[in-house]
């Protein structure tokens, strides 16, 4: 990558999630750099960018801390700090738009870019699991928020006296024969059954629905769900790029 000069084709995308930050550089329509870091401070995030890099546009979305210090550390670029009043390539019917997660806004923009004109259910498996529905007319309606995989393991450990803290692993059993297996079955099969169940209910209402799965924990579930899904791990990044382009081209 040309790192020393301003080049109009480079755009910077930053997603601050509750567990991980993701930083991407696009050259035209292509991702040329993608980095992730667990809860980085602004300087650690800046270290992931090439020296003297100046993109022609940049966007940041945070559902964690204040994005201000991150924008300042990364550089004095032409920033969009994604907020509830940022112009979007879809209409937002959420009844509390001010509190809607910025990552959910991006997920919906990304999904609509991939499948324009379709009814869409977006499932993001991160710290929380979010379900987001947008219809084929581009009207975002809302969805659901549920505890994520790691959050469930932590909750069982933190709110009981005897349950150990487990890490996720792939399992292929229903009946746990030990404490560890019982926790793994409850959490992993529980998320699978919950996700299948929610998908079935949406499919009943919207038979042409397309289902898109994303997020750091999608790999545990992408091959286990009953229905056909489109899996893409970094849909927030895709959506932020769409929102950035939409605003720069206006
Ligand atoms: N290198 C990693 N560091 C931390 N979590 C990871 C990593 N790889 C996968 N994960 C999983 O991804 C989840 C976080 O997913 P992500 O979509 O990044 O969430 P968020 O957007 O909430 O930060 C974690 O709960 C963890 O299970
Ligand atoms: C639901 C979330 C915590 C998901 O965050 P994530 O798991 O991606 O880090 C985030 O989108 C959020 O803080 N939402 C605010 C509430 C809402 O969307 O209505």
TrEMBL record:
Named cofactor requirement(s): NH4(+); K(+)
Cofactor note as given: A monovalent cation. Ammonium or potassium.
Keyword Glycosyltransferase: no
InterPro entries: ATPase_NBD, Type_III_PanK
Keywords, comma-separated and alphabetical: ATP-binding, Coenzyme A biosynthesis, Cytoplasm, Kinase, Metal-binding, Nucleotide-binding, Potassium, Transferase
Pathway note: Cofactor biosynthesis; coenzyme A biosynthesis; CoA from (R)-pantothenate: step 1/5
GO MF terms, alphabetically ordered: ATP binding; metal ion binding; pantothenate kinase activity
Record's GO cellular component terms: cytoplasm
Sequence positions that bind ATP: 15-22, 127
EC number(s) stated in the UniProt entry for this protein: 2.7.1.33
Residues bound to K(+): 124
Reaction(s) this enzyme catalyzes, per UniProt: (R)-pantothenate + ATP = (R)-4'-phosphopantothenate + ADP + H(+)
Residues annotated as catalytic: 103 (proton acceptor)
Binding positions (substrate): 94, 101-104, 179
Highest taxon listed in the record's lineage: Bacteria
Main location: cytoplasm
Compartments reported by the entry: Cytoplasm
A GO BP annotation: coenzyme A biosynthetic process
Pfam families: Pan_kinase (PF03309)
PANTHER family in the record: TYPE III PANTOTHENATE KINASE (PTHR34265:SF1)
Self-association state and partner proteins as the record states: Homodimer.
Biological function: Catalyzes the phosphorylation of pantothenate (Pan), the first step in CoA biosynthesis.
Family: Belongs to the type III pantothenate kinase family.
Protein name per its UniProtKB record: Type III pantothenate kinase
Source species of the chain: Lentimicrobium saccharophilum
